[in-house]
Amino acid sequence: MADSQIPILHSRNAGVWPSVDPTAGWQRLLAVTRSVALQFALETNGWALHLVATIGFLEVRMRSLVKTVLAVMWVGIAFSISGNVQAAEGKVKVLIVTGFDVASHKWEESSRAVHAILQESGRFDVTVSTDKEVFASSELKDYDVVILSYGFWKEAEPGEQAKSGLLDYVRNGGGVVALHFACSSFQDWQEYAVLLGRVWKQGVGGHGPYGEFEVNIKDPKHPITKGLQDFTTEDELYSKLTGDEEIEVLASAYSEWSGKVEPIVFVKRYGEGRVVQNVLGHSMASKQNAAYQRLLINGVEWAATGNVTAK
Ligand SMILES: [Zn+2]
User: Fold this and answer.
1) How close are the terminal C-alpha atoms of the chain, in Å?
2) Residue 233 has pLDDT above 70, yes or no
3) Which end of the chain lies in a sparser environment, N or C, as judged by fewer CB atoms within 10 Å?
């Protein structure tokens, strides 16, 4: 899927919850409908293409007096298409939440890379949201797994509804995969630290210089690491993460900076949900590493389903 076709569910700048612009709802409905219809058209034999054309036509007509009637129709179209997409594909439904990061990480580039790796594996149907308030959405439950692809300790916490939305989602069986600097976010949100198991506390966590190091597979029998061997990568080796939650370490690395063996990929439970944290992935080169990509793909599928079927 080309970059321009990544469906952006909720724009960070749109003020989606709550909407203050009375026309924002229309625009959003149009955007979502177009996006879903296009994606559906691309992934079916093409019969849905006429829907895209119809929507384009209707969009022009929207400017006339029939807004209300058409809007009701569109909701129906959007709803039925979404239903069809979910039913027809049988893929793991993934939501990447991104939209902010420190200057040394370009979140858009980074999340597009993660999107591409997952999409190319053929196992996933990936949507991107650039608004952390998406955790408050009733749509969250439609996803099998949420990927946290952001990181900045100065970023404001999500609203209360969004915070409990994410926690409830995982408690009820939703999967979470936290990537790289996601563990630094929301420093004062204590339950976020419990959810992730280990977090980067400002002034405590750190890493030596970006460069090559060896990652050791600690549990080659786990579905996420099965078939993988120790590998060398070029990345940041996160060290001295904070937390005493019970975690199962699947991959680790020795940090000269901390003088300790540090957890690199680890899993835990939160309620009924599965949580995976993979602290690798600083640069685009880091993300091109084949073992990194395997750990990412396997981690996302396992967090969603408890199994790994991707080859
Ligand atoms: Zn980094």
Assistant:
1) 20
2) yes
3) C
| 107 C-alpha to ligand 1 centroid (Å) | 11
Burial of 209 by CB count in 10 Å (0-12 exposed, 13-18 middle, 19+ buried)? exposed
How many whole angstroms from 180 Cα to the centroid of ligand 1? 7
Question: 113-134, pLDDT tens digit by residue?
Answer: 999 999 999 999 999 998 999 9
Token pair in block for residue 262 = 């540090």
The CATH fold assigned to 92-305 is Rossmann fold (3.40.50)
Give distance in angstroms: CA of 202 to centre of ligand 1.
14
Q: What is the model's pTM?
A: 0.75
Ligand 1 centroid to Cα of residue 91, in Å, is 30
Cα 170 to averaged position of ligand 1 atoms, centre (Å): 26
Do residues 265 and 276 lie in contact, with contact meaning Cβ atoms separated by under 8 Å?
yes
| Residue 277, number of CB atoms within 10 A of its CB | 29
Q: Where is pLDDT greater, at 140 or 50? A: 140
Instruction: Check residue 186 and report its DSSP letter.
Output: -
Kind of pairing, strands 92-97 and 145-148? parallel
Report how far residue 130's alpha carbon sits from residue 150's, in angstroms, rounded to the nearest whole number.
10
pLDDT in tens, 56-77: 555 655 555 455 555 555 544 5
- What residue ranges do the domains of the chain occupy? 3-89, 92-305
Cβ–Cβ under 8 Å, residues 134 and 169: no
